[in-house]
């Protein structure tokens, strides 16, 4: 067993508009925290692995080519590999617990 400390906890990004910190990696999955401050910009590209977001703090919109939804604490979002998505209109500092399966970047280099 491993207790992963700090996962999903808000931490003000350093330089830039967002911050991703990977806190666990195995061959089958990776877990980390993604934070975007109020008014920040989400500049991520689609990933080549499946992804689950759990909103632990904050509020924003998540936008895909097919749908837009408001999300807040407790929301769980599944994104298929390759699906374009972006968080916009961050109205409260956003902290997300993120789970990638298999591990982030393990299929091919991320863009």
TrEMBL record:
* Cupin type-2 domain sequence ranges: 34-100
What would be one Pfam family of this protein? Cupin_2
InterPro entries given for it?
A: Cupin_2, RmlC-like_jellyroll, RmlC_Cupin_sf
Name recorded for this polypeptide: Cupin type-2 domain-containing protein
State the species of origin.
Streptomyces filipinensis
